[in-house]
Each structure stands twice: as structure tokens, then as C-alpha cells.
Amino acid sequence: MKDKMLLELLSEKEFKKILEEALSRGGDFAEIYLEHRIKTEIFLEEDKLKNVSYGVLFGAGVRVNSGEKTGYAFSDEISLEKVKRASQVASHIANSNKKLNPLPLKTEKVKPYFTLESPVSLMGDDEKINYLKRANQAARDYHRKIEQVKVEWYDEAKNIAIINSEGKKISDTQHLIRMAIFPLAIDGSKKFEGYATSGGKVNISYFDKYPPEKTGIEAARQAVEMLSAADTPAGSLPVVVGNGWGGVLIHEAFGHSLEGDGIRKRTSLMASQLNQKVASEVVTVIDDATIPYGRGSFNIDDEGTLGQNKVLVKNGILQGYLYDKLNAKLMKTNSTGNGRRESYRHYPIPRMTNTYIKKGETDPEDIIKSVKNGVYAKKLGGGSVDHTTGNFNFLIREAYLIEDGKVTQPVKGAVLIGNGLEAVKKIELVGNDLRIDPTTGTCGKDGQSVFAGVGQPTVKFTEMTVGGTKIKKV
Q1: Residues of CATH 3.30.2290.10 domain(s) within the chain?
Q2: What is the pTM assigned to this prediction?
Q3: Separation in Å, CA 129 to CA 41, 211, 227, 322, 405
Q4: Model confidence over 66-107: pLDDT tens digits?
Q5: Domain 3-107, architecture per CATH
């Protein structure tokens, strides 16, 4: 189904009836969100195809805003009867004698920031499975110590449409794929599972430049390399975080503090910091929904607002926040195109898109050379963050010691511990090797998950607490 076909499922007259019903109790704003999504998941393990599954999401959500309150209901069927019933439920959030009439609808054309002529998500299953097999074989062939390999594939083709009481009628199509590879290296009692990903919102030609073999080899290299890892020394040390996925630290421990709901409610420590210094002067942070092929990229957000490129922090000074329509209205400003939702079963909230630290001027080799004794976090793993305080801990999936300005011994069990709002003030050097990871990033908030991109150049923190496994002699 094409995005424009969603707008043809109901007539303009029927959309008007639904919006009128939604506003019948006096709401300030009403919106209909339509979605059709097809997703495919494929799993390969032990050289065997383990599972191929398909899923379809198809339905409509109706939202009514009344002051700070939101009423929301959804239907798994798009028909006048069912969607109108959802609008009746959502309308109960309002209780006012003042009745707002929806404006006449006007279809808006979307000028895409980038175009996918042949999205990978529309390939046949045999081609997708072939990519998994190629990645699997490349990982196995890398080294005799690779004994097990898992490969996972996910893709989706999503069409959305937004119709609201302000007269907006707009639609868009979004495609995304991700392939993840997990080779297990074993050497006696030592085991380590490598990890690498590929994909994004990309064309089939993507795999000409980034063949599955490349991803398989990278994951296997990491697994074999880390078998020889020593215990990590603990303490407060200079830390260099590698480019690309390393930006997840800024996303989680700093970016969430700039989202409009926390700013409006003043639950974020950043609410009173506008135009003040919040980071080192070498740090500029950007949230950009318009990056071609980015995991968090889109032409319009889930409220129909055009995707935007926003400078959040410039040379350490806080420039602005991330808003959806509701929080922007309550703060007497405009949406920044950050109203996002997991599906039609959820109402939109302010979320990041592709958030990253801007390219700096320092050669990454010079950043390493500047460290006498420290830790190089080449690849970060999972972690946890308290978004109200910014306190975090992140496992380093691939870590090395830095000794006398050189990357030396791989180390295991390393964990970065700190506070995001303080950590960004300790960034001393920013590399010139910016990379925005288009392959990995699913952000959770308020029970909703959305795809998000993260990125950064190589970055040096003057100090950070490193949790380690090396026992100090007393």
C-alpha cells in the first residue's frame, strides 16, 4: 500500500465527521493518524535458517488535546464507524462549552530529503536470506576459533498519514532494514561474542558498498580480538570514545534532557539553562531528521511536521530544545519536528531523531597520542541511564588500554560510569572523523520504542570513572 492510498480509505467528508466528533466536547486540537506497516524478521543460526516471520500493523489512532491533557484511542480497522468510535472515546478528555470547528482540509505535498528508488525492504526473501548466508560464511571463515554464528534480519515498509483539525492532510512512506551478526569465538574456557550491524533507510545498492561479508568479518574480528583481553583497571581515567555508535552516550545521558516534555514540566535540569554553557566549548550537538539514509531520518514526523536540522548546543552553549506540537504550544513556540510515536496505538511525544556531536578539528591519532594512561572505548555496548539525573553506566563491548599515547592491550569487563550533564563538560578533544551510525538505535521512553540514529567523531574525556575487573593489590 502506498502512503497516498491511506488518505483514500476514507473520504474528506468522513475525515471531517471524525474530527468534528473528536472536538464535540470542546477540545483544542484533534488529529487522525493512519498507519500501514509490513515487517519481516529472519533468523539464521548454526548454518540453518531458523525462522522467517511477517507482521502487519494496520489501523488508526485519534488524539484530542485539551490544555495539557491528551485523550487517545485507536482502532485496528480503518472505517468510518470504527475510527469515529475511537474519536468519541478520545473526546472525553475535554469538558468545555466552547466548540472548535476543524478547518477545511488541504493536502500537503512532501518534498523528500532523500529518495529510495529501490528500498532493500522490498527485496524478495531469497535475496535477503542470501545476504544472511554470506555474512554467516564470512564470519566463520575469518578464524578457526569462530565456532558459532547468529545472523538476524529485520526490515519494514511503513506508510503513514496525518489529518488534523488545523486543516493538515499529509502522508509519507518510510523503509528501514537492519542486519546484525553475532559470532562466538571460543578458546578453551574463554568465550567472547562479537557484534556488528549494517543497514539503515537504504537502497539495494547499499550492499555494493557494504557487502554482508564486510559486516561478518568485522564481527568475527572483534570476537577473536577480545579473547585475549586482560582485566580492566578501575578508577578515574582519561577515556577516548570511538566514532559512530559511541554517540549513544550523548543521546542517552544528555539528549533526553533536552526533550520538550521534561522542559515544560521542569523535570529536566536543562529547563533553566537556555543560552548558558552546558558543555565544553569544543562540543556542538545536533539533532537532524534530514540526514540521507539515517535510522532516525524522515520527511515528516508522526504529527505531519517537516523533519528538521536543529543545533541544540553550539560551542558548549545551549541553543534550544526538541518539541512536539503539544509541548511547543504550551511553551508558546513551534514544533521542531520531533513528535514521534511507536505506532498508531500510541500518541506522539517529543523524541530525538539522529543526534550527534559535530565534526571537530583534531586527528583521531593525535587524540590517542595525547593520553598517557587511559582507556579507548572503541565500541560501546548496552547500558542504563536515569533520565531525570543523567547518571549512566555503559558497558564497553570493545575496549583497549592507552599507554604512552598508543592503543595496546584489549581489556574486558570495562564499564563507563558517570553523569551525562557533567561528562559533556569534560570533553577536551573532538576528532575530524564524524560518523553517524545508521544501523543501530532503538530508543525507549514512556513505554514507546522508536528508531533513532546516533553519532560522533572520536572524542576524548579528560576523565571518567571506569569500572573494571582488575583486583588491586593491597
Answers
A1: 3-107, 120-159+172-227
A2: 0.94
A3: 10, 14, 29, 39, 44
A4: 999 999 999 999 999 999 999 999 999 988 778 899 999 999
A5: 2-Layer Sandwich (3.30)
